[in-house]
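cron nightly-structures :: item 1 of 1
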Amino acid sequence: MTARLRNQQPGNRREAANDIMVNDEVRTMRHQGRIVTNHGRQLAGRVALLAGCAALFGLAGMPDVALAQESASAPTAYRDIPYIGSRNLVWIIAQLHLLLAGFVLGVPIFAWLCEIVGWKSGDKRYDKLAKEFTKLLTSSYATTALFGGILLFMLIGFYPKLMTYLTDIFFPSFLVYCALFLVETATLYLYWYGWDAMAEGNGKKFHIFLGFLLNVFAFFIMIVPNSWATFQASPVVLAEGSDFARAWAATWNPTWWPVNVHRLIANVVLGGYICGAYAGIRYLSAKSQEERYHYDWMGYVGNFIGVFGLLPLPFAGYWLMREIYQYNQQMGITLMGGFLSWLFILQAMLIGVLFLGSNYYFWLGITHRIPGSETQYRKPIMAMLIILLLCLAVWMTPHSLVASLAEAQQMGGTHHPLLGVFGVMSAKMTVANLMVLVTFMSFIMYWRAGKQDTAGWAKVAKAVIGAVLALAGIAVIVLGVWGYFVPAIIRINYFSTSQVGIVIFVMLTITPLTALLLKSAKTTTEMVWGKMPPRAGYALVLNAVMVILLMTLMGYARSSSRVHWHVYGVMRDSSQYAFSPALGYAATLMALNTFLFCMLVAFIFWVATMGDKAKATAGVKGPVEPGRIPAMAGGAQSLDGAAIDSPEANRPV
């Protein structure tokens, strides 16, 4: 560039120099422009990157904002717990609470009645028995309240929308329930801790009055929550007006009183059989003959109370199902004719085993407690056993069989040409009534064993008893067969209710007549306690387990009849659990609940008997006598011979 300027003229040199300077400035400006452009591009890229990140974070945060806005506008309807599931957890806790509550509400009834019998007769055994029952009650009361509190918190946490709805309707009854719970607790404490202080005179009368109040408060504590549960299955149109008027309208729903009566009887059955199981376990582990006497007699009383409640229980269940059908036929069909119908086959099996176990315990009592009666009553016992087994076979027969296509073609359909006849309610109601009659007569036979009639009209009375029993059995069978040829409405409203009326008439007729006969009867053989074989204790435990399984089964059936509704026809279940569990899955949970409840009861009994064991240990000095060994399963008769054949064991009680 310098050589080129030298070769040019001076004027041209100045122009060329100016051009060069201009070109250099242009290049410099272009270079700076490139730098600015690069910086601009980098800045724009960074801004775009930041904007993209902000947009990404904004999109990621939009669900949280939307959920926050949704939660602000609408409360949470459901919550869940991983792995277990909210419904399963509530199911377990609710079932355990209901079983504990049934035991706590059933025990005071017969504890109070035993106390009255002991007070009137002067027999201290009944007062001791009532006190021992109440001791079990006090140990169970706190556990029941604990599970009730846990259940309440879980329902509020997992189902807030449903609980808000129910609270808005039943809030006045919540206040009533709290007041009842307070007075029930105070009465129970006075009843238990004042037992020895009020043992004589007017104090005993006041103590019996406290027992009466305890049962009254317990009854109302039972029926108030029943209104909340039955409203979910059979809601009514809520009346306009005050909160109390709306709560009362919702309480008085079609299934409230049937459930109240059914649960009251079921609680008596549950309490009686659990106390019988407690006595059976204590009898098996008794280390002295005095304990064997006491717990043998306690097992007899517990079994008697369980049977006393078991006899009318099917009638209360029939009344409940009848009201369900009248309220909503579809719900009744779901229960009895839909996918839940197989539950009633399981129910028949459990009830049948319960009837067999209760009768078996009576028959063992006749054989071992009353010397000389085993040969006299062997044939009647065999006849009753055959009738019970035949009735159970009919009751367990399903209407529709699970069959393959080839089997269905051979049968001509899903109904067996012969067995299908036994799968309908007309046959099942008939055999249920016959089983009740047989069990009642088994008790009458046990009651009369070892007695000889001396009244002049005894032959006429026995003929009347036989005629009433025979005519009642024939009438029940005739009505059952006739039910196949009449419309369903006639069979349900007239024939089935007539069968129930006939059985109740038999009980109300034969019981007082037998009592009058035995009033003047001569005792030929004194009843001997403490000689029952170990299998009698196992039968008592089996009866308790069957009752628990039965209550868990029917609780599932009643709740599942609502299908996908929280409140039937009013509030739909929109959670992920809006379906009825499969029968196999439900059976697993029912078995789990039964096991957990048995473990709870065993723990409660263990705690309740710790003081007795301490007293027994302090009272026994020196080595244990050879005859004071616990009865073992499958042991030979010689193992119990030292305790049974001793002179003390043969002493009548």
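cron nightly-structures :: done
Confidence is low (pLDDT under 50) at residues 1-72, 622-653.
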